[in-house]
Design a protein that fits this description.
single chain; 5 helices; 6 strands; OB fold (Dihydrolipoamide Acetyltransferase, E2P); alpha/beta; 178 residues
Length: 178
């Protein structure tokens, strides 16, 4: 079951990136993106105060339309590897979906393996993009100083595909203190 859900999550993440126009030639590079120091790039996206009006991922999946401005809150997770290597992209899950507690002994509680049905309606892909809309070619973990189950508030533009999947081209990220 874990393998199936992990594969499904990776497929959804890939579809979200494809649906929002990500191709290798469209990845941000140069002095304003991948070649810049992580701290310089990070300062473009990380904000010190939480954006107002954040809505949970599940609610956004029900109400947000394509190209609509959106501010989401969620926990990084949804698969055994919620991060996209080489890009500032990851998946977030609505906080209402429970994950395994540390005392349960689950090595990857962020994959929500016991809640696969709930996750599919409460997950979104987040992709940091530069001013031209190109994905940022930096690892999100390093760029944002986040890990699995970090709570983030992201602000950006919603992208919807034919299956109803939600992705956000994010311009701002606030990482809630643990």
């Amino acid at each position: 079951m874990k393998k199936w859900f992990g594969l499904l999550s990776l497929c959804l993440l890939g579809l979200g990136l494809l649906a929002s126009g990500c191709t290798p030639s469209e990845v941000a590079s140069g002095p304003d993106a991948g070649d810049a120091s992580s701290s310089a790039v990070s300062s473009q996206f990380v904000v010190d105060s939480e954006p107002e009006g954040a809505i949970p991922v599940g609610e956004a999946r029900q109400s947000i339309q394509d190209e609509e401005a959106v501010t989401l809150v969620g926990l990084i997770g949804g698969s055994s590897n919620p991060f996209v290597d080489g890009l500032a992209a990851f998946t977030i899950v609505d906080a209402k979906v429970p994950y395994c507690a540390p005392e349960e002994g689950c090595p990857t509680p962020w994959d929500y393996c016991c809640e696969t049905d709930a996750v599919k309606d409460n997950i979104a892909t987040v992709k940091l993009v530069d001013a031209t809309g190109k994905p940022v070619a930096n690892d999100a973990r390093e760029l944002l100083n986040v890990k699995e189950l970090s709570t983030v508030v992201v602000e950006g533009t919603a992208k919807r595909d034919e299956q109803g999947n939600l992705s956000v081209n994010a311009s701002k990220v606030y990482v809630r203190p643990e």
